[in-house]
Amino acid sequence: MIEFHLPNYRCQLSLKKVDEIGNEVIEDKTKSWGYCYAESPEKAEELLKKYTFLPIHVHKVEPCDFVNDWKKKVDSRRKEVAEAIAENKKPTFPSAWGDLKEFLITLFHGKCGYCEEQFISVTFGDVEHYRPKGRVDEDKKHKGYYWLAYEPTNYLPACQICNEAVKRDHFPIAGKRAYAETDPLDNEDPLLINPYRDAFEDHLEFIPSTHPTERKEPGTPPERPGGVKGKTPKGLHSISVLGLYRDSICDQRYRQMLHARQDIKQAVIKLALSDGDKPAWDEFALSLQNFLSEDRPFRTAVYYELREYLQKLKWSEEDVKEIFVSLGFHA
């Protein structure tokens, strides 16, 4: 689960390139402003350099009043959308959310808010509207959640496959759907995981790397190492809508799970050789924390892999639960 924070720093950035003889060149003409949430200006600069998709130079980092900055930027856009809706016209939604791409990418440690792949090394990614702004595929009468088009808590960073190829304008719910700003969103029960509100492990179960591939009913994907199963209706719909079962992503998950299994094997051997004294336990806990760092691709799948390994070693259920709860999982 990702804790949402509004940005608290404004950062002036420009691209950095290497010329034909290997010198770094800062392209001042590309200066732009981005937002970031961080504990300090130094941490903001560190996050931006680590998680932006292209090499950057940070010219300055300064505190910002994001609420007022954002209000000034989007008020006219909100008004334009509201007027179009009132006249029963289709809004055009002038873009503003691109300004928050760096902020969202740093908040999610460079990972897609839906599939947990770290996409920044190979693609720019998208700013995704969790509740779609212009239409809803499951309800053809719905005009979209137009009133949330400029609401930052409705934004997620997403890889282009999750956003453009599979999620698109899907938003299945249980309960009573909201059609206008005056309708309470609390009456909806969204059937897609929202990483600001949902722990992935509460709704999805990932199949460990040692699991044999098993055929299920005709027309359903096989259970395979690196695969995924739904534990709840929200989990099942998320798998279906977001294509979380596709072979390419299962393969990537499987590789991450295999690496994690090798890591924990070494950590357990080291712990056993130490006779389990407290310093050794502390070191083991730190190792687990590193294996499950926030920027680990497919972190939830890796959690299932490590948990299954410890359970196979006949560790007590209570010990295993305590370890993973301490790391922020709903074990």
Protein described:
This protein has 331 residues and is α+β, with helices and mostly antiparallel strands. It has a domain at 255-326. Helices cover 38% and strands 14% of the residues. The protein contains ten helices and ten strands. The mean pLDDT is 93.
Order of helices and strands: EEEHEHHEEHEEHEEHHHHH
- Class by alpha and beta content: alpha+beta
Please report the distance between the alpha carbons of the first and last residues. 13 Å
Overall mean pLDDT: 93
Q: Which features characterize this protein?
A:
10 strands; globular; alpha+beta
Short overview:
38% of the residues lie in helices and 14% in strands. The chain contains 10 helices and 10 strands.
SSE topology sketch:
Layout: E1 9-18, E2 24-26, E3 32-36, H1 41-51, E4 56-63, H2 66-86, H3 101-107, E5 126-129, E6 155-158, H4 160-167, E7 173-175, E8 188-190, H5 200-203, E9 204-206, E10 228-230, H6 233-242, H7 247-273, H8 278-291, H9 299-312, H10 317-326
Antiparallel strand pairs: 1-2, 1-3, 1-4, 5-6, 7-8, 9-10
